[in-house]
Design brief:
binds pyridoxal-5'-phosphate; 2 domains; Aspartate Aminotransferase, domain 2
């Protein structure tokens, strides 16, 4: 009996474990709707963000003239983060001492191990440095490693602070527009990119995956654009802040993993802030192309006396990367469901709006040109008639006019309410 027990139980236990991992990890393994039935975390719970000094509520007044709107603009989530992260922060708070904090090798090892596990890329911890944010890190790189008026290349439409950091540091902005096909899918214009890269560009800022168009660049696309940079001596900053938010089985390819030649010129920006909703903790990591660049950057952080803190971001980051995977995988299933809901709602009730099907991020990019309004009128209409604050497409530069960016990282009921209000405004119900 004992022998039978020991032979059969492990067999079933291992079988169940493999089946569970297969269902959670492999998005192709089950139809989407079936997978949602295994969600344990309550992503449907509506949290009142006005109680936590949320920028999306308080700052809405600056951008939209009111905060009496459903805030679907700035990119943070309305979900409570993974319980393991809350527990780690509570345990840290219970220590009751919040003095200067130092990131030990253990911290950077947790980041490297996560990259290896999720993306098959093992970054060298010797190349890593802390940054209070990806954007401030980028700004420091441009000021430290380029000269005023140097050319910096970006691909628009793209996250608008890319253009801002270039303009605000007195560098010269060069834009290679993305191409959009009839189905609303975007690709890189490699011919245009090569022409511009050959004309004295110093850095290319890549958005990988891409905010706002939701593309997960393929290895072939990354290699093609990376090889152009290698050929023309253009260094790459690859902003991979959204790389943990892969939808529907898409796979993130870190730019620095594409080839040794590309790795040698690529600096990668990563953070748990988007996927685990930790933007308020300021905890980003820069994986430098060279140790010399890393050392120069860290020396500058020290000169500015911002190299050490914050103590909560440290434990939150380690908890996310060491224990947060299961929560994240379930979040991704919910987000995919939200994206599908938006497309189905618009197809049925608001055919003037054409939402994309993002391959990554929680940001839905909606073609609203059929509403026939200019950008100012569209913004006013959404805010005043529909009571919804979307990200304004025109902010994202070339190709953004007439588009809306909808932050879908909120309970589905909130999206439904926003789209229903928009429908009523469009059809004058
Ligand atoms: C592509 C991209 N990079 C960077 C950021 C902001 O990063 P941080 O808050 O770390 O500066 C965002 C925020 O939405 C983003 O979408």
């Amino acid at each position: 009996m004992n022998r039978l027990f020991f032979a059969v139980v492990p067999f079933f236990a291992v079988g169940t474990l493999i089946a569970t991992l297969f269902i959670i990890r492999d998005p192709g393994a089950q139809p989407e709707r079936k997978k949602e039935s295994i969600i344990q975390y309550d992503f449907d719970a509506v949290v009142d963000r006005s109680q936590n000094y949320a920028a999306k509520v308080e700052e809405a007044i600056l951008h939209y003239g009111t905060n009496d709107v459903i805030p679907l603009w700035i990119a943070d989530m309305d979900f409570k983060t993974a319980p393991c992260i809350v527990d780690a922060i509570k345990a840290r708070a219970n220590q009751g001492i919040f003095g200067y904090t130092w990131r030990t090798p253990k911290y950077f090892e947790a980041i490297a191990a996560w990259q290896q596990k999720r993306n098959g890329w093992l970054p060298d911890t010797e190349h890593m440095a802390f940054a209070p944010g990806v954007v401030p890190g980028m700004r420091m790189m441009l000021t430290m490693f380029t000269q005023p008026a140097d050319k910096i290349l970006i691909q628009q439409p793209v996250y608008h602070p890319f253009a801002d950091v270039v303009n605000n540091t007195g560098r010269q902005l060069v834009v290679s527009p993305l191409k959009r096909d009839e189905d609303g899918r975007y690709t890189m214009d490699l011919g245009d990119f090569a022409k511009k890269a050959a004309d004295g560009v110093k850095y290319f800022i890549l958005c990988n995956p891409h905010n706002p168009v939701g593309r997960v660049w393929t290895r072939e696309e990354l290699k093609a654009v990376g090889d152009i940079c290698v050929k023309h001596g253009v260094r790459i900053i690859s902003d991979e802040i959204h790389s943990d938010l892969m939808l529907d089985g898409h796979k993130h390819i870190p730019m620095a993993s594409v080839s040794p030649e590309i790795a040698a010129i690529t600096t990668t920006c990563i953070a748990p802030s988007k996927a685990f909703n930790l933007a308020g903790l300021q905890s980003s990591t820069i994986v430098y192309d060279t140790v010399e660049h890393k050392d120069a950057y860290v020396a500058e952080l020290k000169r500015m006396d911002i190299a050490r803190n914050n103590c909560f971001s440290l434990v939150a980051t380690m908890a996310a990367y060491e224990q947060g995977e299961e929560w994240l995988d379930q979040l991704l299933v919910y987000l995919s469901g939200n994206m599908r809901f938006i497309r189905e709602f618009c197809a049925e009730h608001l055919p003037e709006l054409k939402p994309n099907a993002p391959e990554a991020t929680y940001l839905c990019w909606i073609d609203a040109r059929a509403l026939g309004m200019d950008d100012a009128a569209l913004k006013k209409f959404c805010v005043e008639k529909a009571g919804v604050a979307f990200g304004e497409g025109s902010e994202f530069g070339l190709g953004g006019s007439g588009f809306l960016r909808l932050n879908a990282a909120c309970p589905r009921s909130v999206i439904q309410k926003a789209l229903t209000q928009l429908e009523a405004a469009v059809y004058n119900y």
